[in-house]
């Protein structure tokens, strides 16, 4: 009976080097990329929609004959909130991406990854660089709206 109790240093599972496990690793790796691209699309929509709301309502207020808004700064605050959510989503996405990729490239999966330790420098895809550029765009949009508020 004492043999059935798991030890603290026992692995959760064993990795067997087969073509099946290698292609399973590849599917998981590509799934991580697709998830990151979904985060990118969502963040792009949030940042773009936030900026568009601000621009639309600012132009709407400047039309001749337009009534003054009940809450004139509400579109700016909504836009700032949406832009902040987009940038925050990207920060969370990068953290999740890095954590998962680091786990997939850990020593336990090295035999089924099909690469040696020297070949792991190319483990990141361009999606990470795009995410960082989009964060910069989001921060720029945030401050463009914020400075226009004053």
The share of residues in helices is 55-70%
Order of helices and strands: HHHH
- Please tell me the overall pLDDT: 82
Total tally of structural domains: 1
* Poorly predicted tracts of residues: 1-6
What is the compact description of this entry?
The chain has helices spanning 19-61, 74-104, 110-113, 126-149.
What would you say this structure looks like, in words?
The chain is mostly helical and 150 residues long. The termini are far apart. It is rod-shaped, with a radius of gyration of 23 Å. The relative contact order is 0.16. The longest helix has 43 residues, at 19-61. Helix 1 runs antiparallel to helix 2, helix 1 (19-61) runs parallel beside helix 4 (126-149) and helix 2 runs antiparallel to helix 4. The chain has one domain (18-62, 71-149). It is built from four helices and no strands.
List the topology elements.
Elements: H1 19-61, H2 74-104, H3 110-113, H4 126-149
Helix pairs in contact: 1-2, 1-4, 2-4
Which key terms come to mind for this protein?
single chain; 150 residues; mainly alpha; disordered N terminus
């Amino acid at each position: 009976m004492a043999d059935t109790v798991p030890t603290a240093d026992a692995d959760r599972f064993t990795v067997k080097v087969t073509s099946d496990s290698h292609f399973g690793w590849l599917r998981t790796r590509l799934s991580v990329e697709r998830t990151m691209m979904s985060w990118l699309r969502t963040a792009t929509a949030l940042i773009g929609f936030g900026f568009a709301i601000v621009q639309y309502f600012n132009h709407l207020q400047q039309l001749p004959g337009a009534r003054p808004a009940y809450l004139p700064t509400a579109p700016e605050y909504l836009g700032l909130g949406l832009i902040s959510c987009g940038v925050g989503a990207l920060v969370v996405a990068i953290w999740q991406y890095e954590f998962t990729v680091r786990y997939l490239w850990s020593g336990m999966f090295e035999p089924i990854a099909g690469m040696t330790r020297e070949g792991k420098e190319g483990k990141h895809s361009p999606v990470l660089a795009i995410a960082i550029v989009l964060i910069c765009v989001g921060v720029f949009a945030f401050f463009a709206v914020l400075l226009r508020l004053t």
